[in-house]
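Protocol step 4 of 6: structure prediction from sequence.
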Amino acid sequence: MNKEKSVASADPAAANSKRKGRGKPAKTTRDSILQAAEKVFSRDGFAGARIEQISKAAKCYDSLIYYYFGSKEKLFAQVLENAYRKMIEAEQQLQLDLEDPVAALKVISQFPWRYYLANPELIILLGTENLHKAKHLTKSGGASQFFSPAIAVLDGVIRSGVKKGLFRADIDTVEIYMAIMALGYFYVSNRYTLSAFLGRNLMDAGEISNWGEFITATVLDTVLVPEAPRRSKLQAG
């Protein structure tokens, strides 16, 4: 039997027996598989990853992976969705003061950048999925739900800034969100080649600090009302 194929017809009772044999609750086993799969996929890519490698890392049977996820393709989609979920949940924990939209926007603009630096495996997973033209996420249909809350938070900050006369009224929140994500993603995803081309170590603390400031300055320059009109609006208010 080909291990890479779905085993939708597998006997649940048998899988349950194996699960009990390893002594792990169902949720713990499933979470362990996701964690192990994230490491293997981010190390070897989708094509290079093997189910037996993942099961070994998760300390479970191959059959349990098929039982919970159905196939390697569906497992990879779940790994991607789980990676997105962790990022969005972390972003929702940010402390933002809507009464100070400029400061709030600075925090938001730095978040993806810092998250990518701390979790470079996400960059590899996204790169792999883009090579596959997002076919796994497209089939799963679950990824889009994670971005709505993040965009809503940014939109709240933008609206607050517009109301206070600080931000331009014609700002497209989705475009700003894409710019913030891109400025962080590109630096981390290309850190090795850019370091070689530019003759700089882009992972040096000074370089990281400079790029973080550049991201913030770029985003603020895009959304802020020019100084003179802004001052007039504030005085009129």
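Step 5 (inspection) to follow. The chain has two domains: 12-70, 76-236.
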